[in-house]
């Protein structure tokens, strides 16, 4: 963990970082089983929580009596919303189906609930019944949180940065979700917001209040959810995957991101677009070069900083003034290079990415002197997810050759048959002056070689293969 996060985390122990707006509980698969009327144990409910087409549903059978006092089985089903399910009920023992009314099931905890009846026949019983587990041992494996619904083979870990809406440009945030066999965790951290209380919303519902407090460096707050719950954390009774996560104050949204992944029954392969942020710096022509890249999305974040043509030695990487690591530059064939890589979720060979570089200053330091520095982009340089694109409309080639597109549309291959100004790929050796972005370009007037040899131009006019060394490995 960086010095910055260590300091901020220590500050959180001095103040309450979050609070819950409402009692947390949701009906999970662990609520399935037999429940009985607390006052009349001969009356019972058989419950089963299943995956419906639009979310989890409660399917139930209830034994009661009709208006004449005869035994009656009712079957009912309906969507689950938190700790409540409103069920549409029909008579189970007759065909064709006869509608019976509505049953609302609500639960106070894993062992106690209430059934409220709304029969179509006004002569039937409408009073509510308190229900309890038929077997106390059934409560032991129930938490009322997301971990109850974990699928054994689907361990998931997703980390994403929250997007800054521009209200407080320096602010940043990160959300992390983990679902595994023994628990489910969800954590949201925010930095550099003005001190005060903010609402954490997931899918439009307030889930916690973030109390942002001042620390020795900036400000910080976090909210932690867990199922099963433990001291100092809130019960995770919702699934943040594929939901909009927002940090708001009143009607103002400061940080926002649609979280990756699917629902509780999806597999562990979150899709979506991978957003790429790139910063490239060069001290002078053929001087020290730096390339910093952040890939964010698809359930992971990776940040790398690569140095080329620096004098061999150890350099310090500073992000927003905080030291994040050291880069050892060594001699290689044709020059020098060094690299540091960060990742979240972490993996061997990568440092832990516990900071957000977006919109922050990036500096390479040696002997207390800055060698290169710049500001990392706060918006994506591009999004990755396109194919070859060689038959797309104008402006749509992000992949392969692109050699059959209209002018201005080649981002791939040769492009040697386009009108002037349109070659971004291959040779381009037959275009008018100013039009070679591809191949040899060896027959153009001075100032016109952007491609190949360029061996007949005046000094300073070669942009291709013949006129000097390139950027090296990207």
Automatic annotation (TrEMBL):
From start to end residue, where is composition biased (Gly residues)? 465-474
Q: Where is the signal peptide?
A: 1-24
The entry's keywords: Signal
Answer whether the UniProt record assigns the keyword Signal to this protein: yes
Spell out the residue ranges making up region: Disordered.
Answer: 381-474
Q: Write down the superkingdom of origin.
A: Bacteria
Name listed for the protein in its UniProt record: Uncharacterized protein
The organism's lineage is: Bacteria, Pseudomonadati, Pseudomonadota, Gammaproteobacteria, Lysobacterales
């Amino acid at each position: 963990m960086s010095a910055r996060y260590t300091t901020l985390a220590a500050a959180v122990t001095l103040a309450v970082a979050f609070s819950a707006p409402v009692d947390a509980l949701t009906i999970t698969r662990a609520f399935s089983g037999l429940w009985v009327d607390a006052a009349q144990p001969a009356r019972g409910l058989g419950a089963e929580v299943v995956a419906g087409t639009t979310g989890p549903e409660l399917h139930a059978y209830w034994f009661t009596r009709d208006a004449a006092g005869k035994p009656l089985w009712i079957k009912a089903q309906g969507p689950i919303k938190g700790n409540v399910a409103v069920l549409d009920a029909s008579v189970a023992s007759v065909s064709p189906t006869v509608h019976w009314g509505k049953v609302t099931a609500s639960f106070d905890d894993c062992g106690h609930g209430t059934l409220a009846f709304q029969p179509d026949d006004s002569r039937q019983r409408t009073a509510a019944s308190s229900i309890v587990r038929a077997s106390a041992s059934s409560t032991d494996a129930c938490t009322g949180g997301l971990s109850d619904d974990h699928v054994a083979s689907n361990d998931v870990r997703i980390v994403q940065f929250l997007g800054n809406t521009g209200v407080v440009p320096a602010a940043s945030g990160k959300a992390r979700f983990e679902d595994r066999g023994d628990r489910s965790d969800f954590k949201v951290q925010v930095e550099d917001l003005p001190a005060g209380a903010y609402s954490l919303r997931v899918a439009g519902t307030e889930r916690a209040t973030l109390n942002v407090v001042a620390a020795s460096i900036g400000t910080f707050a976090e909210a932690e959810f867990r199922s099963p719950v433990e001291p100092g954390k809130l019960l995770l009774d919702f699934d943040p995957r594929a939901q909009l996560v927002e940090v708001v104050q009143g009607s103002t949204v400061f940080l926002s991101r649609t979280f990756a992944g699917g629902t509780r029954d999806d597999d562990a392969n979150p899709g979506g677009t991978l957003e790429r942020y790139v910063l490239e710096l060069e001290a002078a022509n053929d001087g020290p070069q730096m390339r910093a890249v952040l890939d964010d999305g698809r359930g992971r974040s990776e940040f790398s900083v690569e140095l080329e043509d620096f004098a061999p030695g150890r350099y310090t990487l500073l992000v927003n003034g905080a030291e994040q690591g050291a880069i050892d530059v060594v001699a290689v064939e044709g020059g020098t290079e060094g690299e540091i890589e960060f990742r979240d979720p972490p993996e061997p060979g990568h440092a832990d990415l516990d900071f957000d570089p977006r919109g922050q200053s990036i500096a390479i330091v040696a002997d207390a002197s800055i060698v290169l520095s710049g500001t990392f982009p706060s918006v994506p340089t591009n999004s990755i997810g396109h194919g070859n694109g060689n038959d797309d409309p104008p402006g749509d080639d992000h992949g392969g050759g692109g050699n059959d597109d209209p002018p201005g549309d080649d981002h791939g291959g040769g492009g040697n048959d386009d009108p002037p100004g349109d070659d971004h790929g291959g040779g381009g050796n037959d275009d008018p002056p100013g039009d070679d972005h591809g191949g040899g370009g060896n027959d153009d007037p001075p100032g016109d070689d952007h491609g190949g040899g360029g061996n007949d131009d005046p000094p300073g006019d070669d942009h291709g293969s013949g006129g000097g060394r390139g950027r090296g490995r990207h």
